Amino acid sequence: MIKNYIENANFEDTGFYYTLSLISGKYKMVILYCLMEFGVVRFNELQRYIKTISYKTLSANLKELEKDNLITRKEYPQIPPKVEYSLTQRGRSLVEVLDRLCVWGEENRQ
């Protein structure tokens, strides 16, 4: 029965596929993890934490995470501009999954 389900299931319709689509790419999980560790973080702070990310890549990833309602962006009307990012409730629930990945990695590191 399970074999038939797997054979007939469309991978794109699975929860696994959907979750991967939200965190796919080189930096999204790292951004989420930084926000989990440090709470509210400004753009330049994220760039310092993730040393290898470019301005353009960080900006694009943040926009995608915000569109997926995993992070929130708060802009302050001041000069120079101040923008802060933090996890939404939905993002915090996903970080629980990422945290389990970290635990698994620590327990199974060879």
Structure overview:
61% of the residues lie in helices and 13% in strands. It is built from 6 helices and 3 strands; from the N terminus they run αααβααββα. It has helices spanning 2-8, 15-23, 28-38, 43-49, 55-67, 89-108; strands at 41-42, 71-76, 82-87. A 3-stranded antiparallel sheet has the order 1-3-2. The protein is globular.
Question: Would you tell me the structural class of the helices and strands?
Answer: alpha+beta
Query: Low-confidence runs (pLDDT<50, min 5 residues)?
Result: none
Q: Quick check: average pLDDT?
A: 88
Strand content: 5-15%
Helix content: 55-70%
Tell me the span between the first and last alpha carbons: 36 Å
Shape annotation: globular
Described by strand count, sense and barrel closure, the largest sheet is: 3 strands, antiparallel
List its salient traits.
single chain; 110 residues; alpha+beta; 3-stranded antiparallel β-sheet
Compact overview of the structure:
With 110 residues, the protein is an alpha+beta fold. It has helices at 2-8, 15-23, 28-38, 43-49, 55-67, 89-108; strands at 41-42, 71-76, 82-87. It is built from 6 helices and 3 strands.
List the helices and strands and how they pair.
Elements: H1 2-8, H2 15-23, H3 28-38, E1 41-42, H4 43-49, H5 55-67, E2 71-76, E3 82-87, H6 89-108
Antiparallel strand pairs: 1-3, 2-3
Helix pairs in contact: 3-6
